[in-house]
Q: What sequence folds into this?
């Protein structure tokens, strides 16, 4: 199997798969250390789609995992013979499609009472493929952004561990279509609407990024770009 993504979530998944005896044929990420635990080949690819042939030749079991991966799979990789591409998404699909860093923020602003992780097939859309499994958890009334994001990351890893044996055995099948429930997409453009939520009662909780501020610079930039409140003063003396 091949792994595509970055960060601790990817590295933990690679390590877990290797220690369970699953073949790790290639790790595609920015950091070569992501492949070290599995003693696997490493590929740093700015655009994974340009390496479709490499992935098809390297993969011994036809399984490609996407974890904490911001790259979008496109042709010809999507139609590469013998490859099944699976994504572990931080969010419940299709309610929280797009960037998890943005989806968590709006989940709090919209008053969602639960969040989680979703395992799904990758198709030509963005987080639109058939859902294989999910791991849900409640959002409490006092939960802040960093609480929900951390639980989402933990849910992603738990879900990967849960579904890995069935995927490897070829017995993991879609439980439902990703379009079976109301859908929402949260990309960077959604942050343009953040200013309209300034007076929302959940705004402080939703923008309390905690340790994730350094991992999601798009969020801190969005806050810095917000206009000052209408009743603020310039500080100049009359």
A:
């Amino acid at each position: 199997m091949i792994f595509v993504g970055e960060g601790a979530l990817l590295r933990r998944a690679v390590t877990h798969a290797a220690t369970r005896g699953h073949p790790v044929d290639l790790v595609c990420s920015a950091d070569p250390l992501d492949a070290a635990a599995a003693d696997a080949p490493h590929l740093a690819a700015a655009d994974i789609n340009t390496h479709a042939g490499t992935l098809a030749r390297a993969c011994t079991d036809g399984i490609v995992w996407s974890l904490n991966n911001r790259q979008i799979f496109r042709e010809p990789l999507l139609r590469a013979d013998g490859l099944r591409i699976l994504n572990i998404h931080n969010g419940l699909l299709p309610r929280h499609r797009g960037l998890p860093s943005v989806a968590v923020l709006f989940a709090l602003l919209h008053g969602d009472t639960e969040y989680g992780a979703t395992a799904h097939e990758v198709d030509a859309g963005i987080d639109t493929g058939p859902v294989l499994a999910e791991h849900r958890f409640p959002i409490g009334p006092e939960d802040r952004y960093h609480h929900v994001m951390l639980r989402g990351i933990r849910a992603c890893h738990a879900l990967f561990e849960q579904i890995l044996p069935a995927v490897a055995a070829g017995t993991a099948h879609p439980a439902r279509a990703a379009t079976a429930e109301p859908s929402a997409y949260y990309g960077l453009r959604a942050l343009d609407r953040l200013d309209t939520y300034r007076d929302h009662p959940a705004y402080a909780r939703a923008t309390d990024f905690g340790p994730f501020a350094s991992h999601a610079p798009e969020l801190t930039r969005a806050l810095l770009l917000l206009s000052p409140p209408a009743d603020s003063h310039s500080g100049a003396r009359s």
